[in-house]
Amino acid sequence: MRKHITGFSNPTVKYLRSLRDKKHRKRSGQFLVEGLRLLEDARASSRVPQTLVMAEGRAHPLLERLEADVMAAGGDVIETTADILSKITGKENAQAVAGVFDEWDTGLARLDRSAAPIWLVAQALRDPGNLGTMLRTCDAVGAGGLILIDDCADPFSAEAVRASMGALFTVGLAQARWDEFLPWLRGGEGQLVAASLRDAVPYRGAAYQAPCFILVGNESQGLPEGYEAACDLRVTMPMKGRADSLNAAVAGAVLAYEVLAAVAP
Amino acid sequence: MRKHITGFSNPTVKYLRSLRDKKHRKRSGQFLVEGLRLLEDARASSRVPQTLVMAEGRAHPLLERLEADVMAAGGDVIETTADILSKITGKENAQAVAGVFDEWDTGLARLDRSAAPIWLVAQALRDPGNLGTMLRTCDAVGAGGLILIDDCADPFSAEAVRASMGALFTVGLAQARWDEFLPWLRGGEGQLVAASLRDAVPYRGAAYQAPCFILVGNESQGLPEGYEAACDLRVTMPMKGRADSLNAAVAGAVLAYEVLAAVAP
Predict the structure, then answer these.
(1) Do A219 and A125 touch, CB atoms closer than 8 A?
(2) A243 and B137 in contact by Cβ < 8 A?
(3) Which of B41, B243, B249 sits opposite A167 (nearest CB)?
(4) What average pLDDT does range B159-168 have in this prediction?
(5) Which residue of B has its CA nearest to A45?
(6) Per-residue pLDDT tens over the stretch B110-145
(7) CA A198 to CA A205: how far, in whole Å?
(8) Contact B159/B249 with Cβ under 8 angstroms?
(9) First to last CA, chain B
(10) What is the C-alpha separation between A127 and A103, in angstroms, rounded?
(11) Are residues A190 and A238 located together in one domain of the fold?
């Protein structure tokens, strides 16, 4: 259905705005994707928004195609003012379009470990930018996806979606507690590898095996010792300076490219 | 000198708060560093703040040592309320301490290219988090430092300093226009390497030579064609997915670790 909204206090505006908040996203099971580029990425992965919100008077061939898709799927197309769009997204220079999507099932059971030689696993990853960057790295190395362990940032937050550059729509995503993940992993083939300083071998030339699950720890705490101990392989990267760790998304990517060269050259 | 400030409209509070803004940082030549951990990193690199601002009633052995250093160097120690600290830093849960430092000279002339086998060079890097992450990577791979080309994010912004995890204080930093950088580079030894899709060789096993300058382009535009053409070596990383690029800080790090293995194993 096509609607036109001009009032800030319209309930739809309030609802869309509430999706900036994780609590409301979890309650409604929906999230907001901002910008035509990301919406096109979603479309390329056959994901059509339930609702499309756009600034009045915008015309773009891609936008028209998107509108047609939304209408065909029985969704709503809402035209509104630039000010209201800014209010919804919380950004002064809001994108001219945003879409509301249903979140999808992120249970481990949906992953097919045989589908890819590499998987990224992040534990208690708190920064949504790092999370999105790791999704993007998954896409680049042909990883099956990202498995989020314990309390991580929300992969459906605007910042994570943006940092993923659309990879949220193309790579696998799962969320699990450690004590669900480990039995799942051990229920099939899979090598668990951690970047570690304890009892580790050099990351270059280590004996990686597909499917290889690369485990990266929390930004400030690193991995709990017990998690490291449960790994099949602990590898270390040169740290030539004063610090003893890399940014989490960087560590994951350096390892992922090394594993890629070993298992899928 | 030791001071106690309780008023929001105190000129010192206004000044400190103004340092959140790049324009004011450039005018005053000073920047703000938040948190005891970063201040300790600075101290380890013999950088003492001009002014230390701390929440009333905080006691910590490291903080006492820092206070003593600041007083010995003729600086100011300001005690204030948690609310005023929040106002200064713009964060609800402000760190209990912040320090004001003089920015330093970031001219190319200060760099000694023979000091390290690897350098990172970022062109038009807009995200301060990426910038700080690249400084952190410089520390990790033993790079001489980061050279910022054209209009980049401000390395002295709070977000860049925080993402650097203290590497701002330990690795080299320069800022230059491309037409200053290239003659400087060509005035001595140095191989310029770009991650590129055009006319590139695989990044693994490429003929890297120290000192190797790894050039990474803007987050959304990549490198201008002319900049790529000026490089001695163009390398490409596998991109197995839908996207054709990595996050800029990730690309720089994956390349830097590959170069490290080649030139300083």
Answers:
(1) yes
(2) no
(3) B243
(4) 96
(5) B242
(6) 999 999 999 999 999 999 999 999 999 999 999 999
(7) 18
(8) no
(9) 50
(10) 19
(11) yes
Q: What is the DSSP secondary structure assignment for residue B151, as one 8-state letter?
A: S
Nearest to B140 among A44, A241, A260 (CB): A241
Is A149's Cβ below 8 Å from some Cβ in B?
Answer: no
Number of domains in chain B: 2
User: pTM (2 decimals)?
Assistant: 0.95
Of B44, B171, B242, the CB nearest to A139: B242
Q: Do B161 and B251 share a structural domain?
A: yes
Q: What is the pLDDT of residue B65?
A: 94
Confidence check: pLDDT of A149 > 80: yes
Interacting residues of B194 by C-beta distance below 8 A, sequence separation 6+: B214, B215, B216, B217, B223, B227, B228, B231, B233, B234, B235
CA-nearest residue to B137 within chain A is: A246
Among residues B85, B102, B119, the one where a domain terminates is B102
> CA dist A185 to A114, A180, A212, A213, Å?
12, 9, 11, 9
User: ipTM > 0.90?
Assistant: yes
Q: Are residues A163 and A91 in the same domain?
A: no
Q: What is the CATH number of the domain that holds B43?
A: 3.30.1330.30
Inter-chain touch A139–B254, beta carbons under 8 Å? no
pLDDT at A164 over 70: yes
B241 touching A (Cβ < 8 Å): yes
Q: How far is CA B45 from CA A217, B51, B197, in A?
A: 28, 17, 39
The tens digit of pLDDT for each residue in B52-103 reads 999 988 788 899 999 999 999 999 999 999 999 999 988 877 778 999 999 9
Whether residues A166 and A35 share a domain: the answer is: no
Does A252 lie in the same domain as A141? Answer: yes
Averaged pLDDT for residues B199-227:
95
Q: Which residues of B touch A136 (CB under 8 A)?
A: 243, 246-247, 250
Q: Are B181 and B155 in contact (CB under 8 A)?
A: no
List chain B residues with CB under 8 Å of A171. 241
Which of B102, B128, B143 is the C-terminal boundary of a domain?
B102
The predicted pLDDT at position B265 comes to 67
User: Mutual orientation of helices A248-263 and B248-263 as an angle, nearest 10°?
Assistant: 60
CA distance B240 to chain A (A): 5
The b/e string for A29-45 (b: 16+ C-beta within 10 A; e otherwise) is ebbbbbbbbbbebbbee
For residue A22, the model assigns a pLDDT of 95
Q: Do the beta carbons of residue A252 and residue A134 sit within 8 Å?
A: yes
pLDDT classification of A265: cutoffs 50, 70, 90: low
B117 contacts in A (CB within 8 Å)? Answer: none
Using the 8-state DSSP alphabet, how is residue A222 labeled? Answer: B
Query: Which residues span the domain enclosing B87?
Result: 2-102
Q: Nearest Cβ partner of A250 from B41, B137, B260?
A: B137
Same domain, B13 and B58: yes
CATH classification at residue B203? 3.40.1280.10
Decide: B138 and B120 in contact? Cβ < 8 Å: yes
